[in-house]
Design brief:
Distance between the termini: 21 Å
CATH architecture of the largest domain: 3-Layer(aba) Sandwich
Strand order of the largest sheet: 3-2-1-4-5-7-6
Order of helices and strands: EHEHEHEHEEHEHEHHEEHEEH
Number of helices: 10
Shape: globular
Number of domains: 2
C-alpha cells in the first residue's frame, strides 16, 4: 500500500527534556520531520538549544502557534496535563493528529503493542498515558491473556535528574492516568500505581516493578507471554528489558528496565525514552493509516 512520499510536518509543544528528545527522534524518522518547536517564553533554554540545532522555533505557546495559522500534520504536546485540554480545544479544528505526552487522561489511551492498530484507525487524539504505563502495560496485558488478574501494582522509579518540572507538577495525574489505563487494558478490578523519584548518585536506570495477583496463574504461559511482549516493545524501544520474572502461587512479579538510546538524553533516562519512542511510533502508524484510507490530514 502506498505511503506518503514526503515526510509530514510535525510540531512539538514544549521545550523541556521530553520535547527536545522528541525533536531529535523526529529528525531520524522516515515519516515525520520536526518543522517547529514551540515554547512559552523567548528566554526558554530549550528554545535556544533548538535554534542552535537549526530547528525553527516559536515563543508564545499555544496562542502564538494557533495565531500563526501554519498547517501541521502532527502535533506532539510535551507541556503539562493542566493545559493539554486547552491545547486540544485549540487544535481540534485544524485536522492535525495530536499526540499527548502528558498524563492528562484525555484522548484515546495508546500502548503501541497492545491497542495501537485499533487506536490509529479510530482516533487522531492520542494519550500516551505515562512512562510507567508504557513500560508496564505491554507485559501486564500479555499476562492477563493467560490468567485472570485480581490485583495489579505498578511501581516506577526514575532518576530525579531525568524528570523536569512538568513531571513533578503532574504526579497526581500520572498516578490516576496510569491506574485507569492499567484497568482498561488488563481488566484488573484493583490497581495501584506509584512513582518514585530517586536523587541517588550515580543516577539509577529507569525501573518498573510489576506485581499481579491471579488465582489461575501458570508459570510457563506467564513467562512466555512476558518475554514475547518485551520482544514486541523492543521493535521501537531497543533498551527495554525484562530483568526478572517469577510466579509463586497466585503472585506474579516482573522487573523491567529501560535504557535510553538517544544522544540528547543520558542512558538512565529510560522514562523519557520509552514514552517518546511510543509517541513517535504511534504518530508514524497513524499517518500511514490515514494515508491508506485517503484521509491524510495534509490533504485537507
Amino acid at each position: 500500500m502506498k505511503e506518503p512520499a514526503a515526510r509530514l510536518k510535525a510540531a512539538v509543544l514544549g521545550t523541556g527534556k521530553i520535547g527536545m528528545d522528541l525533536a531529535e527522534r523526529l529528525g531520524k524518522s522516515g515519516v515525520l520531520e520536526c518543522a517547529l518547536i514551540v515554547g512559552r517564553a523567548e528566554t526558554s533554554i530549550g528554545l535556544h538549544r533548538a535554534a542552535e540545532l537549526g530547528l525553527a522555533t516559536m515563543a508564545g505557546g499555544i496562542t502564538a502557534f494557533v495565531e500563526a495559522q501554519e498547517r501541521f500534520d502532527v502535533v506532539f504536546d510535551a507541556s503539562n496535563a493542566a493545559v493539554h485540554t486547552a491545547h486540544w480545544d485549540a487544535l481540534a479544528a485544524t485536522g492535525a493528529v495530536l499526540v499527548d505526552l502528558t498524563p492528562s487522561s484525555t484522548g484515546t489511551r495508546v500502548v503501541p503493542t497492545v491497542n495501537g492498530d485499533r487506536a490509529v484507525r479510530s482516533s487522531r487524539h492520542f494519550n500516551m498515558i505515562s512512562c510507567g504505563g508504557q513500560t508496564a502495560i505491554p507485559v501486564l496485558h500479555a499476562i492477563a491473556a493467560t490468567c485472570t488478574p485480581a490485583y495489579v501494582e505498578v511501581v516506577a522509579t526514575a532518576a530525579t535528574a531525568s524528570t523536569g518540572r512538568g513531571t513533578r507538577l503532574n504526579i497526581d495525574e500520572y498516578i490516576a492516568t496510569t491506574q485507569a489505563a492499567v484497568r482498561e487494558l488488563t481488566g484488573a478490578p484493583r490497581v495501584k500505581a506509584l512513582l518514585n523519584l530517586s536523587p541517588a548518585q550515580p543516577e539509577p536506570p529507569f525501573r518498573v516493578q510489576v506485581t499481579m495477583l491471579a488465582p489461575d496463574a501458570r508459570p510457563g504461559p506467564v513467562r512466555a507471554a512476558v518475554h514475547a511482549a518485551a520482544d514486541r516493545v523492543r521493535a521501537f524501544a531497543p533498551g527495554y528489558a525484562v530483568t526478572s520474572c517469577s510466579v509463586t502461587g497466585e503472585r506474579i512479579d516482573v522487573a523491567l528496565e529501560v535504557t535510553a538510546h538517544s544522544s540528547h538524553i543520558p542512558d538512565y533516562a529510560g522514562n523519557l525514552d520509552i514514552i517518546n519512542a511510543a509517541a513517535v511510533h504511534t504518530a508514524e502508524r497513524a499517518a500511514a493509516a490515514l494515508a491508506r484510507e485517503g484521509a491524510t490530514p495534509w490533504k485537507r
